[in-house]
Amino acid sequence: MDQKPLQTMGQQSGRRSWAEPWKIKMVEPLQVISRDQREQALREAGYNTFLLKSDDVYIDLLTDSGTGAMSDRQWAGIMLGDEAYAGSRNFYHLEAAIQNYYGYRHVVPAHQGRGAEHLISLAAIQPGQFVPGNMYFTTTRLHQELAGGTFVDVIIDQAHDAQDLHPFKGNIDLAKLEQLVKEQGADKIAYVSMAGTVNMAGGQPVSMENVKAVRALCDHYGIRLFLDATRMVENAFFIQEREPGFADKSIAQILKEFCGYTDGAWMSGKKDNLVNIGGWLAVNDDTLFEELRNLVIVYEGLHTYGGMAGRDMEAMAIGIAESVQDEHVRSRIGQVRYLGDLLIQWQIPIVLPVGGHAVFLDARGFYPHIPQDEFPAQTLVAELYRDSGIRAMERGIVSAGRDEHTGEQHYPRLELARLTIPRRVYTQAHMDVVAESVRAVYEIRAQTRGLKMVFEPKYLRFFQARFEPL
Ligand SMILES: Cc1ncc(COP(=O)(O)O)c(C=O)c1O
User: Which of 159, 176, 312, 457 has the greatest CB tally within 10 Å of its CB?
Assistant: First the structure.
């Protein structure tokens, strides 16, 4: 029998191979349950991958949030936890790391991103104000709405088109933003809410040119600009790679320069910062800081722990320094890209260009015969689990939820299933297994049917909604 010559990963793409810039010191065994068991698990979970038990999952690509592997340095830091109620030395390490790498003056710790979103929304939004931003994020928008604000999407149009190849699909459309300011008046704008990278658009970045221009517009009208810095390190990588003038700058330099155009940031440390739990807020303004420092005590914990243990803060301080290393970011995004490139080569519809933290499958491209109210992306994640035990997440109509005033469903143009890659956890071989499962599900797409929702929670329904096959 003829055997095809084997090719390394690099040879397949006509270049030298790269490898992860770490080696493995401890392993966590994985198991795959049988197809019949997966079928049953899916039924019991109401076809919602958030309701699966993780023991029933093989490769877990639900999220990159808190699912990364910490380094030996971070684990050593855990042992140095100072669990004093007040003034823990680990808080001061964390504060110094944020000031050093992100450049803001004041730091408020929080238990995770949504804790920080809650505080900034309470402190910076007056009921009746508008919050323009580059596409909504689920928890961010909900906190803005609960504080009495109305989110307005001012991202560029290209972001809503899965196939558009714009290099900075996360950019804010300045004309849309200015129109809103002129229509409503600057005093009705709470702040501009900018995320780098934009999760719901497919992990798409914002350019340095864009943040500079938004800053200038905000200065002109006297409006504050706050950043969702959750994946801002990954955003800095795309600036280094794609924006003229940044190729010779380090990720750390680009990160600090970008943050320098903003008045503050909130953070889910569970992503870029390489920890399993934690978050923070950082601002430059003294008065706003005092307000946040007061609010954190009510909702999160004292202003020197904010819901985190001392050891968690130490791990995050170390994680921040590791997260900005160029080698780390290159290999992290390289792994995401490797998976994306395989799928592109097999002509499977995904969001282009491949973003920072995930490959987003375009469920409209998979299932043109399934209408959006029969939940194509939810169907796709259920199919993937059934095929191989791989867990992904819906990012389409279920995640978009309902209009807070009319109760009507939002119908987002993007109907996506997200394969989110945890940091430093899986190898290239896992990516191959994932790609082959996606292909298997794509091959049977014509006979796949949609779902109906049989239970809908009031808030953030995607986490707990239940479905049945049609
Ligand atoms: C862009 C973005 N902002 C905020 C959050 C909320 O962070 P957390 O899950 O830590 O509450 C997330 C989490 O996925 C996110 O992706």
Answer: 159
| 114 Cβ closer than 6 Å to some ligand 1 atom | yes
CA of 388 to the centre of ligand 1 (A): 27
Beta bridge partner(s), residue 130:
150, 189
Question: What is d(CA 276, CA 422) in angstroms, rounded to the nearest whole number?
Answer: 11
Residue 9 CA, ligand 1 centroid: distance in Å? 32
CB atoms within 10 A of CB 27: 6
CA separation, residue 298 to residues 11, 64, 102, 138, 218 (Å):
56, 29, 26, 23, 31
| CA dist., res. 454 & res. 438, Å (int) | 27
For residue 385, what are its two tokens?
Answer: 């689990």
Ligand 1 atom nearest 231 alpha carbon: 1
Phi, psi angle pair for 401, to nearest 5°: 70, -150
Residue with tokens 């796949």: 448
pLDDT in tens, 317-364: 999 999 999 999 999 999 999 999 999 999 999 999 999 999 999 999
Please state the φ and ψ torsions of residue 75, each to the nearest 5 degrees.
Answer: -65, -35
Please write the tens of the pLDDT for every residue from 425-463: 999 999 999 999 999 999 999 999 999 999 999 999 999
